[in-house]
Design goal:
By secondary structure, this protein is an alpha/beta fold. The chain contains 10 helices and 15 strands. The protein has one domain: TIM Barrel, CATH 3.20.20.370. Helix content is 36%, strand content 16%. The structure holds zinc ion.
Length: 347
């Protein structure tokens, strides 16, 4: 484990301990959202919570460090147990969610493969949505179709022709293994770019949720992503000229950005990994987001691998999401929806 990751795990363990939570609860009034209140306030329409779970190989260690698909593309437990643990939680509260699926799951063999497929079928049967999620460099099923290795996560390392192949082959894999046509999309590590927007537009994708307003990361690496110049909180149509532009509105793809919030100099994603702060971010958006003409969509992100340990037991993230769902369900005008359902309400 690198020093940075060790520090992240230590911080996570501290801030999800009773004393850490106590400290965070005393600081929640520092949570705010820049540029949310630019319109008149109104609350006639619903406040939609769209839980999104990026679904990949990997698992959470008992010390809460994460094993991601990039290092263990063969750890298919992230799919079958990850999905199962999330499904059980969601179904207990009748909360519909969207699973952004990386097609690497289809590279599983034998019993692993059957378990992955059976969980995906249950997701559809239970009316959760399955969207598409691309991680070219760790997706063994995709690389087999492309007949080559991919060396980067971010779209910016591929030309338009390469991106087109990646998306078309991914769609083919979805049809072949689960018989589904997908309409919602998130690029792995939020690393969308302009060529990817063009390809997704031609491929008939209706909703994207790659944007993390105000956040960039891995700037010098193959997982580079940059939404730091974007400060829009309400849906827009992605730009075919510059993916960071929110006013061109010239593609058919609606962007439903991941909710981000400001806290003590940081910009963070609405993610149950932040336990108490996720509730505070929800409260801030619930109170201040404009929804007099259209519902507001609050997009939360987590991962399948954060729902399971390597023995299949449930994680702290599942328990913290349960607290969050219970909190959000207290409000009569809050409704949990899939991306597709949310899109139909706001388009
Ligand atoms: Zn991912």
């Amino acid at each position: 484990m690198t020093l940075f990751n060790l520090l992240k795990v230590r911080l996570y363990n501290f801030f999800t301990s009773p004393i850490g939570r106590y400290i965070l609860r005393s600081l929640v009034h520092f949570v705010y959202v820049k540029t949310l209140e630019k319109y008149k306030k109104g609350k006639k329409k619903k406040f939609i919570v769209a839980l999104t779970i990026d679904t990949e190989s990997g698992y959470t260690n008992k010390d809460n460090s994460r094993v991601w698909q990039a290092s263990r593309p063969d750890a298919y437990i992230g799919y079958y147990k990850g999905i199962e643990n999330w499904r059980k939680l969601l179904n207990k509260y009748n909360a519909k969610a969207t699973f952004f699926l990386c097609t690497n799951g289809f590279s599983a063999k034998g019993n692993d493969y059957n378990k992955v497929i059976s969980q995906l079928k249950l997701l559809s049967k239970e009316n959760h949505e399955i969207g598409l999620h691309t991680h070219p460099d760790s997706d063994l099923a995709l690389q087999k179709c492309l007949k080559k290795k991919c060396n980067a996560t971010s779209a910016r390392f591929y030309n338009k022709g390469e991106i087109k192949k990646i998306i078309l082959e991914s769609q083919k894999l979805m049809r072949k293994h689960i018989g589904q046509k997908v309409s919602s999309f998130r690029w792995g590590n939020w690393a969308l770019d302009t060529n990817a927007v063009k390809v997704l537009n031609e491929a008939g994708i209706k909703v994207d949720s790659s944007a993390t307003p105000g956040i960039k990361g891995h700037i010098h690496g193959t997982m580079h992503y940059d939404w730091s110049k974007v400060n829009e909180r309400y849906p827009w149509r992605l730009s075919l000229k510059n993916y960071q532009n929110t006013i061109h509105n010239n593609s058919k793809i609606m962007e439903l950005p991941i909710a981000t919030f400001n806290f003590m100099g940081l910009t963070l994603r609405a993610d149950p990994v932040y336990s108490v702060l996720l509730k505070a971010a929800f409260d801030y958006y619930y109170k201040n987001a404009e929804r007099s003409d259209k519902p507001f969509v609050f997009v939360v992100i987590s991962h399948s691998i954060e729902g399971t340990h390597n023995d299949g037991t449930v994680t702290r993230v599942i328990k913290d999401t349960e607290d969050f769902i219970k909190h959000a369900k207290k409000f009569d005008d809050v409704e949990f929806m899939t991306m597709k359902e949310a899109y139909n309400k706001v388009k």
